[in-house]
Amino acid sequence: MTSDPFVLGWEEWAAFPGLGLPAIKAKVDTGARTSALHAVAVEPFGPEASPQVRFIMHPVPDRPDLEITCAAPAVDRREVISSNGESELRWVIRADVRIGGRTWPIEVTLTNRETMQYRMLLGRSAILDDMVVNPGQSCMQGQLSYDLYGDVPRRPPVPRPLRIAILTREPKNYSSLRLKAAAEARGHVAEMINTARVTMAINTLAPAVYYDGRKLPRYDAVIPRIGASMTNYGMAVLRQFEMTGAYILNSASAIGASRDKLYAHQLLARAGIGMPTTAFAHSPKDTRNLIEHVGGAPLVVKLLESTQGRGVVLAETRKAAESVIDAFRGLDANFIVQEFVKEAGGADIRCFVIGGKVVAAMKRQAQAGEFRSNLHRGGEAAPVRITRDERSAAIKAARAMGLAVAGVDLLRSETGPKVLEVNSSPGLEGIEATSKKDVAGLIIEHLETHVRTVSARPARRRPKTSGAS
Fold first, then answer.
1. CATH of the domain spanning 277-340, picked from 3.30.1490.20, 2.40.37.20, 3.40.250.10, 1.10.1790.10
2. CATH code given to domain 6-149
3. CA 193, CA 216: separation in Å to the nearest integer?
4. pLDDT value of residue 305
């Protein structure tokens, strides 16, 4: 004779006695393989061979002032793809869950679910063979109550200082100093980390970053200011910081996309963003075709690794274009050929994008006789009012690269704005001086909204647990 199955509704009340969580309302989702538990300020500790994870839980969705500090052994770090398609590296813990009168161990990933209706998702891997789910019923295993947290002190949440790493080889330049000052002005701790002096210990559960042989602490956030010469190693360092749980302002993949000019233009084209017609070829026999693809001379030839206007040449005639292209090929250089937008008059517009918004803009005008408007090459900056189309193009370009912070350079042409380049480490000096905006402060504000700031509190008395009624 078989026993009756254990029936779960589409939502159930659960408890985690070992974590001090007597009541959590969970969504039962057989479409999700992995279970998830709300957690902020997730921090590993203990020996590297058997790490523990400490985190803060807000068990009641509309009570952010109620915090429970939990700790559990970590069993894995796992890449999880959420329902909206985003990938996230999460800590995985094993804990006993109790639903109704039954308790069993499950693996659960830790992630921030503060925007979700349920603080827990119970995936199909946590549902045992003798359990069934009735999607038409709610709380088949009885009711619990958030009143079980009644003896936990309520205090208004106080933002904690963030520990921020500024990854740069130039700690004394304007941008690095401004970011550090802006962070410290808001009560955070900012440390300069020279990318070239970082080493990495790569393992599954306890990835570590070392600086001059000293193991670095866990950072809440990392601001990458990686120079072009350190792109590949810098991206590896960023990926390692991400594995430790730090929020990366601009991800390694986004920086890599923006630094590869050919790939960047392919991404812009795929996103339907206006840009100068661009051509690329490998064979030396295709010089004539390259020139024809961009509408003939005058045209611009750009090294793929060029920065600050270096390696960018204007060829005013077909013969000059052929000579420049042949010279670059003779150096075994990678380059693209672009349409020259004459009506721009040697001027471009730099739009500074933070978190999907253009927060500042400036017009850069090249010196007489020069077509490159970069400030490093003597260009002059002035305030500018951008159009709705220019604003939209800048935002779409940053989004196409996956960059949270970007300097988007565009030209004003007869057919609308044309994006020239998307810079993943835009300088702050020119844009702040011209726009009179505290751009560095806006970057730190963006960090604060993406790194969950919760108060650090003394250990609290754990509430008594209670079964289902």
1. 3.30.1490.20
2. 2.40.70.10
3. 10
4. 67
Residues comprising the binding site for Mg(2+)? 409, 421, 423
Annotated binding site for Mn(2+), which residues? 409, 421, 423
Annotated binding site: 302, 339-340, 348, 372-374, 409, 421, 423
| Length reported for the chain | 469
Query: Contact, 417 vs 128, CB < 8 A?
Result: no
For the stretch 334-357, pLDDT in tens is 787 888 888 777 788 999 999 999
Give the domain ranges of the chain: 6-149, 163-250, 277-340
Q: What is the pTM of this model?
A: 0.67
CATH label, 163-250, candidates 1.10.150.750, 3.40.50.20, 3.30.450.20, 3.40.190.10: 3.40.50.20
Region of 48 please: left (phi>0), alpha (psi -120 to 50) or beta.
alpha
Q: How far apart are CA 424 and CA 408, in angstroms?
A: 9
- List residues forming the annotated binding site for ATP: 302, 339-340, 348, 372-374
